[in-house]
Amino acid sequence: MREELLEIKNLSTSFRIADHYYAAVDDVTLTVRKNEILAIVGESGSGKSALAFSIMGLHTRANIDGHIYYKGKDIVGMPSAALNKLRGNEMSMIFQDPLSALNPLMIVGAQIEEALILHDSKLSKKQRKEKVLDLLSKVGIPRPDHTYQQYPHELSGGMRQRVVIAIAIANEPKLLIADEPTTALDVTIQLQILELIKHLKDDIEAGIILITHDLGVVSEMADRVAVMYAGQIVEIADIYTLTSRAKHPYTRSLLNSIPTVKEEKSRLHVIQGMVPSLQNLPRAGCRFAARIPWIAPSEHEDDPKLHEVAPGHFVRCSCYKNFHFPERTEEVHTHGTS
Ligand SMILES: Nc1ncnc2c1ncn2[C@@H]1O[C@H](COP(=O)(O)OP(=O)(O)OP(=O)(O)O)[C@@H](O)[C@H]1O
Fold first, then answer.
1. 48 in ligand 1 pocket by Cβ < 6 Å?
2. Which of 110, 63, 131, 117 is nearest to 88 (CA)?
3. I need a surface site. Which of 157, 163, 284, 310 has the fewest CB within 10 A?
4. d(CA 54, ligand 1 centre) in Å
5. pLDDT average, residue stretch 36-61
6. pLDDT at residue 312, as a whole number
7. Matching Pfam families, A to Z (predicted)?
8. CA dihedral sign, ordered 36, 41, 44, 45
């Protein structure tokens, strides 16, 4: 049995817009275990980054409710000094854009050393440099000595992201959050970076949260998957179950959007529309109902909950039970939702 590292319970993160608070993460409950990759997938605006930032304690102006237990200790509301210590020592994050995560005025080597100094001041100068060179080679940089002396702008996007990963793993974190780590990179480099993250899971035995909107990436990488829609988890399961027996209409639509040789057929079965803006999110009933208007309102729950349909497989709202993709006529004759 794998050890539970992170346990999130009923977490809501709300942002103030004008005079109101709106929850971008709404009642999220999930766990991350040691030595596993939990992927969080969902379209843009579904709340993935807001959830990641909440775990890292990086929201300065948001209202956070609920609990985030890290190794059994609730870190919501933890004093910032203690949280700072935890970040870097125990938890770290790889951001989408490697350029903005690095200091343009500092050589790469010094930036990785800084991460080491902040969290372990006992290393001698020589030991620190050796450790930096070791980290650079661990993340697949071919000439660590040379790269040590370079500035971020002298590196390619893929090399920069490797440096960012070296900083993130410098202190051997137990929890690593990678937020769309390959978005800014071209396809071949994406694969290399993803392979590297997979390798790190075994190497440092971390629990990894991989945030992406790409279920293709997920099927290559993840042990378990949480699917987010409009701030909520709508389905969570191990990767095999999710890719072979997905139930929620949103998950099924996402899976159909993975390009296949039968592209003509799958295009027909992808649900149209997008996640509404934060102020316009439906707050009552099934949040996905508006995108599947051919499903009768009576098929949805008034207050949809996550149901455990098989051990470890949870699905929100009973609308999954009789769900089907629309026939052409149903797209026109809907049940009145818009
Ligand atoms: N600081 C903020 N203030 C107000 N609204 C915010 C803030 N951060 C995020 N939001 C809103 O919260 C919702 C969720 O955003 P979030 O960035 O978490 O989505 P995401 O799933 O990570 O999207 P993407 O894949 O595009 O990064 C969006 O409607 C977004 O506009």
1. yes
2. 117
3. 284
4. 12
5. 93
6. 95
7. ABC_tran, oligo_HPY
8. negative
